[in-house]
Design brief:
The protein has about 160 residues and is an alpha+beta fold. The strands form 2 sheets. It has a 4-stranded antiparallel sheet with strand order 1-2-3-4. The two termini are about 35 Å apart.
C-alpha cells in the first residue's frame, strides 16, 4: 500500500488517483449492488478499503461511510461482521453494519423521469409528488449507495449533509 499524504480526511477521499479510471466506468458502481447474490454484494461493498458509501439517516440526511471492511466471522459465530467508519476526521466512529440490510435489495417507487426532466430547478424537483406504496416499482436498490467518483467528489465538495 502506498501512503498518500493529505491535508485532511476529506482531501484524501476527494479526487483519489484512481478516480479517473472509475469515472470512465460509472456503470461498475451502479452494478456493484445490483448483483443477485448477496455475498457478492457484501464483497463489492467491502473489497476497496478506500471506498466511500452513502446512506440516509432517519432525518433524510446523507451519512458518509468509508473504509468498509468485512471482519469475517468466527467458528462459533460464522456470520460476516461488516464495519465502516462514519464521518470524517478524528471524530469518525466505527459502526458495525447489518450487512444483510445494508445490501438487501429493496423496491423503490420513484417519480416518472419525464416529470423530473421537465423541472429546471431543485425546488421544482422537490415539488414532484412522491408515489405511494401502491405505485409501480420503478427500480430496485440497496440501502447503501456506492457512488461513482464524480458523484462522491461533488457531494463531499458541497460541504453539506443534505445536498
Amino acid at each position: 500500500m502506498i501512503a498518500r499524504p493529505a491535508a485532511s480526511f476529506k482531501a484524501f477521499y476527494v479526487r483519489q488517483p484512481e478516480d479517473d479510471d472509475g469515472n470512465k466506468n460509472t456503470k461498475a458502481f451502479t452494478d456493484a449492488l445490483d448483483d443477485t447474490d448477496e455475498e457478492r454484494r457484501v464483497k463489492n461493498v467491502t473489497e476497496d478499503l478506500n471506498a466511500v458509501l452513502f446512506a440516509a439517516d432517519a432525518e433524510g440526511k446523507i451519512q458518509i461511510l468509508h473504509s468498509p471492511a468485512n471482519l469475517g466471522g468466527t467458528r462459533t459465530r460464522p456470520k460476516n461482521k461488516v464495519a465502516a467508519l462514519v464521518g470524517l476526521g478524528p471524530q469518525a466512529t466505527v459502526e458495525k453494519l447489518d450487512e444483510k440490510h445494508a445490501v438487501k435489495l429493496i423496491d423503490l417507487r420513484c417519480p416518472n423521469l419525464n416529470l423530473v426532466d421537465a423541472e429546471a430547478t431543485a425546488e421544482g424537483i422537490k415539488s414532484i409528488p412522491i408515489p405511494d406504496n401502491t405505485a409501480v416499482v420503478t427500480c430496485e436498490a440497496a440501502n447503501v449507495f456506492l457512488p461513482a467518483p464524480w458523484l462522491k467528489n461533488t457531494i463531499l465538495d458541497s460541504d453539506t449533509d443534505c445536498p
